[in-house]
Amino acid sequence: MADTRATGIRIEGLRKRYGAGETAVDALRGVDLQVAPGEVVGLIGPSGSGKSTLLKCLGAVIEPSGGRMTLGDEVIYDDGWKIRDLRALRRDKIGFVFQAPYLIPFLDATDNVALLPMLAGVPDREARERAHEVLAALDVDHRARAMPAQLSGGEQQRVSIARALVNRPPVILADEPTAPLDSERALAVIRILEKMAGQYQTAIVVVTHDEKIIPTFERIYHIRDGRTHEEAGEGLRP
Amino acid sequence: MISLAGRDIRHAWGKFVFTGVGLGLLIGVTLTMAGVYRGMVDDAKVLLDNSRADLWVVQQDTLGPYAEPSSLPDDLYRGILGMPGVARAANVTYLTMQVGHGDRDVRAMVVGVVPGGPGEPGQPGYLIAGRHITRSHYEAVADAASGLALGDRIRIRRNHYLVVGLTRRMVSSGGDPMVFIPLKDAQEAQFLKDNDAIVQQRRRTAANPAFNRPSVPGLLEAVIASQNTNSSVNAVLVQVRPGESPEEVAAAIRRWKRLEVYTRAQMEEILIGKLIATSARQIGMFLVILAIVSAAIVAFIIYTLTLGKIREIAVLKLLGTRNRTIAGMILQQALALGVLGFVVGKIAATFWAPAFPKYVLLVPGDAARGFVAVVVICVLSSILAIRAALRVDPAEAIGG
Lengths: 238, 400
What we know:
The complex is a heterodimer. By secondary structure, chain A is an alpha/beta fold. Chain A has one domain (9-232): 3-Layer(aba) Sandwich (Rossmann fold), CATH 3.40.50.300. Helices cover 30% and strands 27% of the residues of chain A. Chain A is built from six helices and eleven strands. Chain A has helices at residues 51-58, 86-93, 109-119, 124-137, 153-165, 183-200; strands at residues 9-18, 25-35, 40-44, 66-71, 74-78, 81-82, 94-97, 171-175, 203-207, 219-224, 227-232. Chain A has a six-stranded mixed sheet with strand order 7-8-9-3-10-11. By secondary structure, chain B is of the alpha+beta class. Chain B folds into three domains: 4-44 and 277-397, no CATH class; 60-187 and 234-258, no CATH class; 193-232, no CATH class. Chain B contains twelve helices and twelve strands. Chain B has helices spanning 4-11, 13-51, 76-81, 183-191, 195-207, 219-227, 246-257, 264-275, 277-307, 310-318, 323-352, 364-391, and strands spanning 55-58, 72-73, 86-101, 104-113, 129-130, 139-143, 153-156, 159-167, 178-182, 232-233, 235-240, 260-263. In chain B, a hairpin with a 2-residue loop joins strand 3 and strand 4. The longest helix of chain B is centred in the first third of the chain and has 39 residues, at 13-51. The model of chain B has no long low-confidence stretch (mean pLDDT 89). Classes of the chains: A alpha/beta, B alpha+beta. Chain A binds chain B through residues 51-53, 55-56, 59, 61-62, 87-92, 96, 98-99, 102, 104-107, 111, 114-116, 118-120, 124, 147, 163, 175-176, and chain B through 1-2, 4, 7-8, 10-12, 311-312, 315-322, 325, 393-395, 397-400.
């Protein structure tokens, strides 16, 4: 298997067309994007610009109509060709952080995090040890046995980040992870993502509308009418 | 791997338990309906067992004495007794009626038997209290299910009887408790007319010139006397000698006495196949409807529980959970609900069965079949929810 961590995620000329004929809609018209391991980039754009479609393509949830996507040296899509098991790819190599934490309500914090390695066949005990390790890195291990309903919003979001990190994926896709949070907590989440990206050498793409956090990215991809252009951001101040 | 179904159930155990109890009560009703049918069959068999007869001799071309009226002369048993292979033969009458007791009455099957000790066909086999009928008139032995006690006085038509003995599980095929009285009294009770009717009948007989002939003195009195007595019985119960074939003895009686004779197997077929067949079909319909209602309820519950977790299922699928893991979770919950429902239903049926006025027989085999049916219904019911879950697009977990 290719080392997916070496060069992060790269997409070239990614296209996505919905429907066919006169009613066809081109949501993505040749998107280019590259995120190195340990890097956090922002992806911003107005509604209908293609952000969600791009996120779904990056997350191997929908298949692009054309273009190429690689995770490290591993080709995921290449002009209509795709790897066979997208489900396993999502499980093992892509982490997701959602706008709402979407924790499984009937599992405690540890098992919410440990579920992914368990699904990948890791023995329960080892999966829980991994979960504790990531929860500790996110300073939420003291709430390891709490059910999601017993956690605060910030704690839930940290548990969901822990879930995204637990399989050490080469890429994490964060969909509006700070939307429901105030400025202070939003910045705290971005700091956590920055720290985890460095600690686990993970490429992180943060889709956001949040004006408070947009300047904190060192690189920002703007998407409009299905195309991206890149600009530099200010980066997080210490 | 943790059990997602188990964790979900543990998380929302109150909702799960209440749903299971509700389903269980429905399953309990279903098991009870099966028990009612089994009870009817058992009552029919008990009726035959308690007759302690090998053969039932009845009026020709009838299915008597339980399924159709049958009338035989009461001296016929002597001729049957003389047939080869016959050990014992006894007259018997059956009449289902209201038996008065104080200011209330009891539905009972009044059985007319020849007074004598146990062992005679038709006699109650064993008593739980008191003694057998020893007098030719006005004594009765009653089944305990009638609510009568030793020393009670009961009223059958215009005569009063003293309860001298009590039996148990002596019931008709309809589940009515039996009351045994002397044969002569039972014969009278079957055809007893009120005084006005007797006077009117005598007047009509006297007005008939065929019976009231001046040249034949005593004819009218003889005719009237014959009208006031009843020398009919419903059946003759026969026990064959050990080693004799009931079929062969029955064939001989049919041939030489020109009567209908049924063996135990034939009588069982009449009772179960004909007498309670309509009731059995009725109960069968109830069972089918209850099974469909149970399936619909399980399907609705599981479907609703699944729809309540659509977002979690989308997240699980996005995170790479296999479809079979999600389907397994739903199936396990459906089965757990079914097992809980079955346990509750079995316990409920066991508790409330004795309270039913008629005998409810809960057979372990029915419970086993019921359990298998519940499992099958749960599996089929979960298909709808599994389909809904598998249709969930993992992209639903991502906004936009």
